[in-house]
Specification:
alpha+beta; five-stranded mixed sheet; four-stranded antiparallel sheet
């Protein structure tokens, strides 16, 4: 090997080392940018749901919709649409039956991009997706009680309406107690881990006054069956109607 070839080889090694260092420096920035993009889209989804909820309240004398309204056609009508009974991942889903559908009348806002549906830990509920956001169960008055009026709360700024949601399932195949899986979930509760802290260990929350904010999990509330999924509880004070 002549001297020029030796220098060329050394230069190549140096260039590769520099590129490796630059890559190591850039990867965290790229990851943060991806996280920010997903969080921004999620926030836009929640705000559209919030506008739809406000329009619903306006049309129903301030009263909120119920979490579940009944069973029909071998399925159940929930606030977000009709979900067929049957095997997990194979159910039909129709969002047009949901209480808010007339106010946004299009698909695309129902799933947070940070809900990683393609991972081995995820179990789908329906064949065509459903909803990745949960509704504050406190706002769903059971029949025949009159509807709750979220905007009449003492502090609407502290009353959550929607948030990132999911649950850990270990009882519906293919999930088992030995292999718990993450799945979509549709309500938020003070009694069980149903909030999904999927944005760098934070959940995004839409409040009754239409503003959004991020929340951390209540300490010690992350579901121990699949802790890496980051499913836990929100603060009880933002889920209670007062």
């Amino acid at each position: 090997m002549n001297r020029r070839s030796a220098f060329t080889l050394i230069e190549l090694v140096v260039v590769i080392a520099i590129l490796g260092i630059l890559g190591a420096l850039l990867l965290p920035s790229l990851a943060r940018a991806n996280h920010c993009a997903r969080a921004t889209q999620c926030l836009a989804n929640l705000r559209q749901l919030g506008v739809a909820a406000q329009l619903y309240w306006d049309d129903h004398e301030g009263g909120s919709f119920r979490y579940r309204t009944g069973a029909t056609n071998n399925g159940v009508v929930y606030w977000f649409g009709w979900l067929e009974n049957g095997a997990e991942g194979q159910r039909a889903f129709d969002p047009r039956a949901g209480a808010l559908w007339p106010y946004f009348n299009a698909r695309g806002i129902e799933i947070c991009p940070a809900l990683r549906r393609s991972t081995p830990d995820f179990k789908p509920k329906a064949a065509d997706g459903a909803f990745g956001y949960g509704y504050n169960l406190t706002l769903s008055a059971p029949d025949p009680q009159p509807a709750i009026r979220p905007q009449s709360a003492q502090r609407p700024t502290d009353l959550a309406v929607f948030a990132d949601a999911a649950q850990i399932n270990d009882f519906q195949p293919p999930a088992t107690p030995e292999k718990p899986l993450l799945e979509e979930f549709y309500y938020l509760s003070t009694r069980e881990p149903t909030a999904h802290f999927r944005h760098l260990k934070r959940a995004q929350v839409l409040f009754a006054d239409a503003h959004a904010a991020t929340e951390k999990a209540v300490p010690g509330s992350i579901d121990p069956r699949l802790p890496r999924a980051q499913v836990g509880r929100l603060r009880s004070e933002i889920l209670e109607f007062r």
